[in-house]
Amino acid sequence: MDVPEDCRYSKDHEWARPDAGRIRVGITAFAQDALGDIVFVSLPAVGATVAAGDVIGEVESTKSVSELYAPVAGEIVAVNEALVEAPERLNQDPYGEGWVCEVSASDPDPTTGLMDAAAYRQLTDG
Q: Among 22, 29, 40, 81, which is 20 to 30 Å from 89 by CA?
């Protein structure tokens, strides 16, 4: 299973990747594989302030509906509007075109407390 080294991971299977002063957020390959074919994504509102662990949206698949959680605290500054018309991007490219939102982190070290790739592999292999 793909687990990029440049991301940090939550126990809820979201990833966080620092990108030009923002944190790009999405669901992991493990999560999208467990969900199956994704057919709908509810995105967070731009401008919303979130705490780490807050529900920021939903992903609906042919199998189930799962909540999306913020892996970091801050303000939602961008969302991937392309997912509204093409939610399957989460299945096809979860770490690229399937990103969900970007957060302007309120913490100077926002990924503290998240797992590195090795720890996330242990969680999902275990």
A: 22
